[in-house]
What does this fold into?
Amino acid sequence: MGVIRGRYTMIVAVHPLAGFDKVLHYRAPEKLCAGIAVGSLVRVPVVNRFTLAVVSQLDPTPDCPVEKLKNVAELVYPFPALTPELLSLARWIAAYYAAPLDTVIEAMIPVSVRKGLALKIEKRLAVARELSVDELETLNRRAPQQAKLYAFLKLQLHPVAKSLVLERLKVGPSSAAALVQHGVLREIDHRIERVGYGDDLGGVEPVAVIPPELNLAQKAAVDSIRASGAKGGFAVHLLQGVTGSGKTEVYLHAIADMLQGGGGAVYLVPEVALTPQTVARLRGRLEQQLGQRVVVWHSSLSEGERLDGWLALASGEARIVVGARSAVFAPVRDLRLVIVDEEHEPAYKQDETPRYHGRDVAVYRAKLAGAVCVLGSATPSVESVNNVRRGRYLHDVLPTRIDDRKMPLVHIVDMRHEIVAKRATSVLSRLLIDKLHDRFEKREQSILFINRRGYSSSLLCQECGYVAECPHCSVSLTYHRADETLKCHLCGAVKPAPLVCPQCRSPKIRMRGLGTQKVEEHVARILPRAKVVRIDTDTMGKKNRFREILGEFRTGKIDILVGTQMIAKGLDFPNVTLVGLVDADISMHVPDFRANERTFQLLVQVAGRAGRGDRAGEVVVQTFTPQADAIQFAKQSDFDGFIEGEIKLREQFRYPPFRHLVHHVFRGDNAEKVLWVAEQWKKRVEPLLAGAAELRGPSPSPIERVQNEYRFQLWYFTGAVVKTVGVLAKEQRDFPWPEGVSQTLDVDPMSLS
Ligand code: ADP
Ligand code: ZN
Ligand code: ZN
It folds into this structure.
């Protein structure tokens, strides 16, 4: 850096953040050279305006004579916005997820930083040199205003805000300037921190608690992580343990270890607003006990708060960030540890470009940084378990809950009998009603979960539990109301929807999902004296209402909480002794090869909400298909048994993780045109992908029409994902896309709809 060659000092290659995917070259003027590094955020002239850009290379071979290069206008921050490792990560994401590099870089740098938002600086004044008696007398005579200012500041123990003191003393800025110029006063730039946590964290305050003595399994896990750290270099640990087995405690120890070594850490959670206790615990331990600032990264930070948090990390003042998906890009220096809690959560997948998977990016970032990555879950994903089996990940298991409390008792209610019994309500079973009564009498609390999808897109017989499935793809067929057909949205197979169940001839073969509101009404009717409150996407939208509800529930003002599975995560209420899952089938019979896995995870997670205090919990699961593997294995808390069968099935159908899946969606308001384009596209790419990928489709999306747009999809199953994505991305650029049809690629999609 800073090599002086003739009149210029350094050439840099930059990526402009202006919506074009290109590398440009500039000269760095001498005064900026020392500060510019790979990853620096700079302002550069492009045509006749200035734009922000990230430095991607120092001293490249310029693309035109050096004399013609323009100068970098400004270095925005005195430290790099992206580390070289983040820049490599951006390139990998762009290539792997078929996204333009500038979009990826933009996703990595918060808007406030990209805007080059100014730091909030406060000017402060302090006495720099004491005046002698003579000098003071002269000053009193010649410039009484200055003397007044000096006299005031001399009495202060700390520097004082300039604006404040000038206003208070009614002294003009010129007096201050004169004193500064003569070296009597000193002007100090003080950065104001806008620290943003608190809000949106359910009102949970950090508390410093003495770390508990680890149990043997925890110790083994911490030692194993420590050993990887000591060895140096990249390693991934899968930390498996049911809720309450002490995983968070292991993370905290690993972080404390790593801090001692001087490194930084990224701690990802699926959704910060839903894990207030974890954040409070982390801050209590690290801030209050170790004096390390924790940057909390969540969606409702203000721009200023985001900027300050980001700057604290980029400048190295703070070394730890906890946050959702996008915190994986936080500019943590010297990254040594990456934690991904609830690694199986689909929420880690971003559903707009760049469509990256936060967990997978976390693993890759750790790899680039040579850091240790810890993936934690009670129900690890099939992908991660498979990586353990192949020897790619280390496996640390916490087999029991901390206090050795038994797992809750799980009751499976066969709703087919309930329907036959034709009771007053078909929403809640007798057993669930009885238990709700019982808890209410005992003044204990209950939670009822309803699946997030308020509808079912498959056919399910309410008499015998028959579900229509595609024989080729092992996923449920999708029921299309418009033309009364069943379609496989993977391979495109179509058949007429039956009017009666093919298995038992019952006409009760249509399924309708339940809304949270409907369940709330039912419960209120059954238990008129109980306080029942519903929490769903509507309430989630209103930040304060969500907090209020959680607060009221915690303090016992609410008896029964009705909500979607979004509240199944992280929340910990010791007085909850009953959990009901009202409609287990809806997640099980969605047309997705991960449907079983999701259902199993949901059941285990929901069960983990019951009985965290000193009372044992009970779980009631209502289903029309009680014999399903996901339900039976969850009832026994048999993760290994479940995963064994699931991995076999995936291998048999060569679903992920045995191959990668790429989802290609075509949209437009003219259905025929969209389908035609999808077919033309397929004709074009199929020969190019021969041997690399298997194509299925085009087929209609499970929800064929969204906001007046028709959607068709193609699937690529591939063992060579980078090659396949490379071919697709190139063809995407070259294909003569007609007007009125848009399309998107999604690599490793987490949901097949
Ligand atoms: P998980 O993250 O697996 O749900 P936690 O780490 O949150 O588990 O632990 C559950 C509870 O047990 C927490 O209240 C935690 O403070 C406590 N705990 C964790 N480890 C220990 C230990 N070794 N001894 C006593 N209490 C512990
Ligand atoms: Zn039937
Ligand atoms: Zn099929």
Observations:
- The two ends are 50 Å apart (CA to CA).
- The first strand starts at residue 10 and ends at 16.
- The chain has 25 helices and 28 strands.
